[in-house]
Request: fold
Amino acid sequence: MTVTIYIPGDSGALALGADKVAKAIELEVVARGIDARIVRNGSRGLYWLEPMVEVATDTGRVAYGPVSAKDVPSLFDAGLVDGGQHKLSLGNPEEIPFLAKQTRLTFARCGIIDPVSLDDYEAHGGLTGLRNAVKMAPADIVKQVTDSGLRGRGGAGFPTGIKWKTVLDTAAEQKYIVCNADEGDSATFSDRMIMEGDPFVLIEGMAIAGLATGATKGYVYLRSEYPHAIAVMNKAVRVARSAGVLGKSVLGASQGFDIEIRSGAGAYVCGEETSLLNSLEGKRGVVRAKPPLPAIQGLFGKPTVINNVISLASVPIVMDKGADYYRDFGMGRSRGTIPIQIAGNVRHGGLFEVAFGLSLGEIIDEIGGGTATGRPVKAVQVGGPLGAYFPRALFDTPFDYEEFAKRDGLIGHAGITVFDDSADMLKMARFAMEFCAIESCGKCTPCRIGSTRGVETLDKVAQGIEPEKNLALVSDLCNTMKFGSLCALGGFTPYPVVSALTHFPEDFRPVPVAQAAE
Amino acid sequence: MSLQPASTEFAARAKSVIDEYKGLEGPLLPILHGLQEEFGYVPGESVPIIAETLNLSRAEVHGVITFYHDYRSHPAGRHALKVCRAEACQSMGGDAIAAQLIQALGIGFHETAADNSVTLEPVFCLGMCACAPAAMLDGEPIGRIDAEKIEEIVAEVRS
Reply:
């Protein structure tokens, strides 16, 4: 009997040597004359165990990790093909607490199936949502998505169904579905993981959006920093096209839908939706003023649904299991599940999909297991480079859009960076301003000039030059940027700066000896 | 030796890339990516050809090229090393790793080694934030960079 061995092809696993492991396994398989099929699956998202190799046995999957190439011969000696015991044995991966505690709806198949096998995808429940949608009227699809309570997972949290309704209600000869896969926030990698590990779920979500709104063309704007995701998505689109999921007719529907993958070019600001649209049109990625909303005048001036990868990838489960099923997870106005990405200086870093409502402390201490260095957690930044730094005192905050907003924070794209007590918060605040200066599109003054002045002023604070006066200036500048910027880049850069100042004032006190010590 | 044949050859190469993508909706970024793939950078001489084909002004094309960090105005070295400078990598000592790489390679960010072996570029997030600090060498990701991996990177680019 052919044994199936899974070795992740996910970029994170590759970064930890998965290709070398795969080569070593291929060599052993040949040398030992084993009848084996090797599948390059996505990652389950347990990055401290990557590369995590799995074998399909009669009693289910058995995992080993973290595997390095030099472990491979001993793994085969220990009977890897039958799930034999080895010092790297992890047993049934589903029973690893980090996975067992999750509610995987969007990521149900990620790390399990062969990413580019449509048969695998269907065998694990794929395409059911799209098949349901094909039989429904557009307005009913939109209603089901609206009723699910799904909100934009890119960070803004705008109800997905409402966006779709506007596009549906706007008459036009051509409409577009644009997927924002410009995942530039540090600590976030859920888009990358799903595109590399289960690309068909995104394609299915986009096709459903097309049927729901009357859009026939979809674009995935995928950042160039993700070459592997680009390759997998291109391959998956070709497979979907030849299987009739995409093309002149979506699974026999009267309407067609096709998708093109477009590569970004290294501009962070293009994650902002209007800037992304300009970039897709071949222009500088400069932010547009709203209104007009992209739903009314978007790509090439046509009505456009622009949604984040995870928003679109969460649609198939809504159309498969129903709006109530999805809505019953979560708390308050944050419904469904959220793939939390635990990153940075953390022991158990990875992707944790769960219903909204877990407290920040549970996520960091219990699930993440504290810092990787073993030192105390000093701060966590939630929501990427534009998110606030929270101290331990705020660890009781539930993971929910509104609860974070109440404490002057944001969940953004749900990435969390953990810092130990060696972090210098003045340096982090300066970095936020510096990053904004590098990435500002230049359209509005508070962001373009404010960020540079912010770096200079914080440098003065660091040098002990009139610190009180300069910190007051920084606060004032943050206010101007927050209320005077056109988009979230300039508007949210104050979050990390002000939160660092508020929660870690001791790091902003002048250290006069620092200069002398140089 | 006349420059004429070379520039004709250049124009033909550039034109064939441009022609491949010009039929797309919003073709400029795909064209620029294609040119960088073909030449290793976006040559200034290609600007008028793009402008004419797409009915844009040269200034507009120049504006787009210079807006995006990806497009190089000069050829890169034989290897391109992108080192992540974002927060998650910083939290795991990314600054020290970057400093060590700079020292080991003898070049700063945005610079190419004198022997043309490698170009060092900063990048803000490679999506490998749970295996920081991270870098990418010629499109291949490298995670949890430590002294040993720095040695491997240096050996690879010098080989």
About this structure: Chain B touches chain A through 43 residues (CB under 8 Å). The domain at 79-158 of chain B is CATH 3.40.30.10 (Glutaredoxin).
